Amino acid sequence: MADMVRISKTLSRWLRHRPNEAGLLLDAQGWAPLDSILAALAAARLPSDIDTLLRVVEENDKQRFELAPDLSRIRARQGHSVAIKLDLTPMAPPSMLFHGTVERFLPAILQEGLRKMQRHHVHLSPDTQTARRVGARRGSAVILQVAAATMHADGAVFFASSNGVWLTDWVAPRYLSRL
Ligand code: HQG
User: Fold this and answer.
1) Which atom of ligand 1 is nearest to the CA of 118?
2) What is the pLDDT of residues 66-78, one digit of tens each?
3) 2-76 belongs to CATH 1.10.3980.10
4) In CATH, what is the architecture of 97-178?
5) Cα distances (Å, whole numbers) of residue 135 to 21, 75, 100, 121, 132
């Protein structure tokens, strides 16, 4: 695997799920000191120079990471399973959003709705191509359309993550239709 992808996967694991593994302490908003990250990369025998790290952040296909303007800290934009607070601002969603999943989860999803599982939120995509990619991580993708504007009108809260992912707590079955 190319170094950039290995670093990105490693950062995702540390900054979203297992900060302890790298001896990191995330603050309440999920930030880790950049120095500690570079030291942890070195300890993991991954490239640990600042230029490579900046490239990983800038060129990341999904813009998963965010740097503090003074480059002192880094965090994952979303997708955490550790308890942190992202200070997201509620926003009105577009009329339709999409969720990519796989056939084997459909019976449960259509019965109990889309649940956040290990993450802080249910992740929804703004377009079907993105949803297809998300679903295809697990097999042959199935796309669900989410009646987001109706949900919102009914009182559900949505957040737009800075990298284009829409987040919400739960999607009841009545808002879901298979494409
Ligand atoms: C499924 C990646 C049974 C759900 C992606 C999904 C995305 C249910 C899985 C981001 C269910 C959870 C998020 C229910 C939901 N019963 N299964 N009631 N409700 N599910 O990974 O949306 O590369 O936590 O369909 O690209 O797949 O990490 O969520 O299959 O943007 O940046 O349970 O993660 O981004 O899986 O993916 P996940 P997701 P990154």
Assistant:
1) 24
2) 999 999 999 999 8
3) no
4) Alpha-Beta Barrel (3.20)
5) 28, 25, 4, 16, 5
